Amino acid sequence: METETGPISGRLRQNFNFRSYLVSLLFLFIAGGCGHKTTKPLPEGEFLYVKTSPVVQSTAAVPVFSAGVIMPEDEINLSFKTPGIIEEIRVIEGEKVKKDQFLASLNLSEIRSQVQIAENAWLKATRDHERALKLFADSAVTLEQLQNSVTAVNMAKANLDIARFNLEKSVIRAPDDGIILKRLSKENELVAAGYPVLIFGVMKKSWKITATLSDRDFVRISPGDSAIVMPDAWPGTELPGAVFEVSEVPGRLTGTYDVRIKFSDRGHRLAAGFMAGIKIIPAAGEHVTLVPAGAVVDADSLSGYVFCPDEASVARKIKVEISGLEGEMVALRNFPPGISEVISEGAAYLRDGGKVKVIK
């Protein structure tokens, strides 16, 4: 759903990318697991002492990481009931407002004239009905004529109510305490009825954030899955939340899917536009293979490589598909069967086909 995110979503997609975010995390884990800088592989014919670790088959709810922009949970498009020329807009983007505060107005000259016309029509219909009553008492008019006068009064009153309602809705007032998220129009512009003039965010303790996910991560997420929001403005703070909406249609430009998360501020001061990291924990686990972070080398996007020693003490380089991080382990999808251990120390120095000696 691109409409909700709007220009802010564009900035989000420029500054945050799930794949690069995850690769950065993997780099930190892998660097820590190796404990030294990568050097050139040993010359052919020489061997390297290495240590191995067993691979662990597991069913785990591997978290999905993303980032987004914090916004109020409720957003309202404020507009005028009737078309007209905007006379005044008294608020700016980011301004906090109180309930019933005046926000904007059309030029009311034409609309007030319509109210005056409707009032005059109602007064005339009322006078005609009063005369019809007197004439009916003198048998000067028929019952049908009297009933028609009643109908005319009712129709005139209904038209007056419509005109007064249109006049009232030609002024925009804040529906609740909140913040002006966006101004979509300017003064002296001619706007159509119902065209959004202001985007209003209701200021409550509940907030929402949108994670943009690739298709491979999207299929793992369902409404109700738990999530953690980590605002950049509050380092170390984790605000629990839950997925409440999952878009089934990808963005036209990005091809990613929007997943919306609702959470509470828990007493922390938040504002619309705050950036935050997102961690979503799928309720349904998936089968993964866990290996130490130091075993994964040459991580690129969501893939990398591991080395496995064969019976001839030769290291074989195998490409693996990275699912995510599980503590200090890397979770791999679709790991080749028949492999029971990987080289966890010394992998950064190896090349495919290099000779190794395993230290027990």
Which tags fit this structure?
single chain, 360 residues, alpha+beta, conserved putative lor/sdh protein from methanococcus maripaludis s2 fold, Elongation Factor Tu (Ef-tu), domain 3, OB fold (Dihydrolipoamide Acetyltransferase, E2P), 3 domains, 6-stranded antiparallel beta sheet, 6-stranded antiparallel barrel, 5 helices, 23 strands, rod-shaped, disordered N terminus
In terms of topology, how is this protein built?
Layout: H1 2-15, H2 18-34, E1 47-54, E2 56-60, E3 64-72, E4 75-79, E5 84-89, E6 96-97, E7 102-106, H3 109-137, H4 143-168, E8 171-173, E9 178-183, E10 190-191, E11 196-202, E12 206-213, H5 215-218, E13 226-231, E14 239-246, E15 257-264, E16 275-281, E17 286-292, E18 297-300, E19 303-309, E20 315-326, E21 329-333, E22 341-345, E23 355-358
Parallel strand pairs: 1-23
Antiparallel strand pairs: 1-22, 2-17, 3-12, 3-16, 4-11, 5-7, 5-10, 6-9, 7-8, 9-11, 12-15, 13-14, 13-16, 14-15, 17-21, 18-19, 19-20, 20-21
Helix pairs in contact: 3-4
- Provide the CATH top-level class of the largest domain: Mainly Beta
Overall morphology: rod-shaped
CATH superfamily of the largest domain: RNA polymerase II/Efflux pump adaptor protein, barrel-sandwich hybrid domain
Helical residue percent? 25-40%
Summarize the structure.
This protein has 360 residues and is an alpha+beta fold. The chain folds into 3 domains: 36-62 and 286-358, conserved putative lor/sdh protein from methanococcus maripaludis s2 fold; 67-73 and 210-281, Elongation Factor Tu (Ef-tu), domain 3, CATH 2.40.30; 76-199, OB fold (Dihydrolipoamide Acetyltransferase, E2P) (Beta Barrel). 25% of the residues lie in helices and 39% in strands.
